[in-house]
Amino acid sequence: MPMMDRNIFLEIAEGKLPADIVYQDEQCVAFRDINPQAPTHILVIPRKVIRTHADVKAEDEALLGHLHLTAAKIAKEEGLESYRLVINCNEGAGQTVPHLHLHILGGRGLDWPPG
Predict the structure, then answer these.
(1) For residue 34, what is the enclosing H or E element?
(2) How many helices (H) and strands (E) does the chain have?
(3) Which long-range contacts (CB under 8 A, 24 or more apart) does 62-68 make?
(4) Local confidence pLDDT in tens for the 115 residues of the chain
(5) Distance between CA 94 and CA 9 in Å, rounded?
(6) Cβ distance 29 to 101 under 8 Å?
(7) 104 φ/ψ angles, rounded to the nearest 5 degrees
(8) Predicted local confidence at residue 17, as pLDDT
(9) Spatial separation of the C-alpha atoms in residues 17 and 89, rounded to whole Å
(10) Considering 66, 68, 101, 103, which one is annotated as catalytic?
(11) What's the fold here for domain 3-106?
(12) Which residues pair with 103 in a beta bridge?
């Protein structure tokens, strides 16, 4: 794997770094954010490295659907009646790790518009 694709989330997905993992399967891993922005803040990441949302390809369609279904399942298991899913794309939007990830945020009221 090219060095530019190595990142902290990949290290977590490979079990090389510890995380509070709430779910994992052959396609993705979900774990609690170490800097939570809500009482429930879980990240859902694909095992496949996709640097940003802008880098998804047609071949990733099923994987993206799986990430969303997994997020819904986790939200239900966490007892969230309402929650927000966020995908930041690139640094200007707040993406700090170059690995596509969904934020599940819940457990408190979430204002609109965000940010």
Answers:
(1) none
(2) 2, 5
(3) 63/27, 63/28, 66/27, 66/28, 67/27, 67/28, 67/102, 68/102
(4) 455 578 999 999 999 999 999 999 999 999 999 999 999 999 999 999 999 999 999 999 999 999 999 999 999 999 999 999 999 999 999 999 999 999 999 999 999 988 6
(5) 16
(6) no
(7) -100, 115
(8) 96
(9) 24
(10) 101
(11) HIT family, subunit A (3.30.428)
(12) 43, 86
Give the pLDDT confidence score for residue 72 in this predicted structure.
98
Question: Which residue(s) pair with 40 in the sheet?
Answer: 106
Task: Give the pairing type, strands 102-106 and 28-32.
Answer: unpaired
The answer to whether 66 is a known catalytic residue is no
Give yes or no for a contact between 6 and 98, defined as CB atoms under 8 angstroms apart: no
Residue 11: left (phi > 0), alpha (psi -120 to 50), or beta? alpha
The whole-angstrom separation of Cα 106 and Cα 40 is 5
Q: DSSP secondary-structure letter at 15?
A: T
Question: Whole-angstrom Cα distance, residue 40 to residue 78?
Answer: 8
